[in-house]
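Reviewers of the previous submission asked for a worked example of the structure-prediction workflow described in the proposal, so we include one complete record here. The input consisted solely of the amino acid sequence. No template or homolog information was supplied to the procedure at any stage.
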Amino acid sequence: MKNSSSILLLAAAGTMLTPVAGYARDTQKSPERRAAETLTKMTGEEKIRLIHGPMTGLVPASKRPQGIPLSAGYIEGVERLGVPMLVESDASLGVSNLMEMRKGDVATALPSGLSLASTWDPEIAHAGGAMIGAEARAKGFNVMLVGGVNLVRDPRAGRNFEYLGEDPLLAGELVGSQISGVQSNGIIGTIKHFALNNQETGRNIASVNMDEQAMRESDLLAFQIGMERGKPGSVMCGYNRVDGKYACENPFLLNDVLRRDWGFKGYVMSDWGAVHSTEAIIAGLDQQSGEQIDGKRYFSDLMVEAVKAGKVPQSAVDKAAGRVLYAIYAHGVADKPLQPGQSIDYDANGDIAQRAAEQGIVLLRNEGGILPLAASAKTILVVGGNADVGVPSGGGSSQVNPVGGLKRVSKGAESGPAAGFARRGYGGTAPLDALRAEFPNAAVSYLDGKDVPAAVQAAKSADIVVVFAEKYATEAVDHKDLSLGEGQDELIDAVASANGKTIVVLETGNPVLMPWQAKVPAILSAWYGGQRGGAAIARVLTGKVNPSGHLPVTFPASVDQLPNPVLPGSDAPPADKETRAVYGLQAGLKPFDIVYPEGSDAGYRWFDKKGLKPLYPFGYGLSYTQFRYEGLKVTGGKALSVRFTVVNSGQREGADVPQVYVTRPGKAKRLIGWAKPNLKPGESKEVTVTADMRVLADFDAKAQRWVVPAGDVKVEVGTSAADPVLTGTARLNRMMRRP
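From that input alone, the workflow returned the following structure tokens.
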């Protein structure tokens, strides 16, 4: 029997989920013209209606529009003109149900963002986006707050699990594919959090100070590529300040970069609680989201007053409302009315989530070929990680209540900003159940690992030990360090000392240190595995799936290797009354500045520039088969093209991720492209990678141009950023491009 569900959320009359005939379905006209014509028919009050909205759960039930689901928020429509209400849902990993505000409502949980990035596969990103977008529409949502693409600059950052790694090209390509998939359902997808919102500590008050060249070559480039590929209807600006100005009222980011240089036609929505003035609309913000969290209705009552007082021109309100209308028409929201309560095939969607999880698992170590596990194993001991109930998920606004529900739920934090909305829970297929299904003739037992001597004793008599090690991560809180914590490093060391056939499965939202590494013959990074994470892990362990994941982040050997060994703001004093009066109730610390010494050389670029050897490099990942690269041909001139052949020289079918890096004189190496061929034993495939010149270039802030100087460059084809296999050179002509 298929696992499907109909959502009992029916739209009542007057809810404005359905457009009025004669207005919204004139699809022969361009979105720009439709928006302009509708805008001329709107009253001043109707325009204001489009540029602000509340968080649904904070609206009293008696005042809440009938028929809409409890969610992140909504924007009232204009019924008489056929402009539909916008009903918003978090987030990138599935249809979120924060703190289970919709009791009993579940959704298919995708693996974490870092797991998705580990696939290096835009097709998987698109399929996952299309799936969660379809579920969002079926549940009554037409705006999905997806597209997290902040670069991983510090492995301790709490929301790293949501994001897509440390490289702007990889992250941009994948987020664009995800957004495209989401919006294929006739809904609006976002890209977020614009920009430089790279850590949680002080996220509401900190100022990231970085020069324009470094921004353009790193974080902004990830957004730019993602927007070119995905064409999101909306951009969500971040909480933080950039060079002293809030991201949501930063004219450089919103007017100069986003609109003047990139030609963005959609609307900028704020993050929830990120608005600080009505004048933000002049600086480029179009919509105040979750307005109750801000404490003031800057884009509604106060906006009306500001227009009357001449502080804000009416033209600014018209532009903002027009941009919202443009996105509604450009992405089919007005032409495909919501019909909440549609059936969802959770089994089919679970298959999509499982494929993503399988492709995102990274084999970090496999000494002596201990994996895949031998079918002859008779006694298998599973230890720790709550593997008896499910796989972990990250906390905060992106957390999905998976099909089957969350189990063994506890608070995500006892105090601080995460205490009110973060939960630690486990869901999806349990690894223990999945392993028992894969080994029906073996005795597969489980210990939670809290009693280390008991685990050691049991390990001595087992053929194989699989230790599941986890590290919880959540929005609003950064990690203090990179240890697993909770005694898990000591547990692994003790168990591995007792049994030389100990395998460690890491379920984390970030890189971690591994002081026990040398004692363990096999290590998998399974991240947060989503709906069928347990099944995916079991299939990789048994060899039914040949691992093909590659790291989208660097695993440092210690925090001393990081550009900021001390997390910025971790030593900042707590906020006082004056701070909260200026920065709002969410300000937990006094303001501080964040400086990233690496500039545009984030992640592996920093390690290359400084000559540092990480624990595991960016791009690293092993397979159960072997691959050979040959026949390198490099062409320069007006464009850089790299051609080579990949051969499966092993005994198993598998997918590889050959990566192409370029180093200019005096610069850190940069990823310019990759491929992911799936090959049978003995099969080969020719791969061609053509560089986006922006990845090669410097950004000249004074000239406002991308510039590649004429000269020779070094080209590497490798299995990671630190493991070149083929090398060559090319001579490039001088190239220039507008931003």
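The CA atoms of residues 487 and 536 lie 26 Å apart. We consider this example representative of the routine output the project will generate in years two and three.
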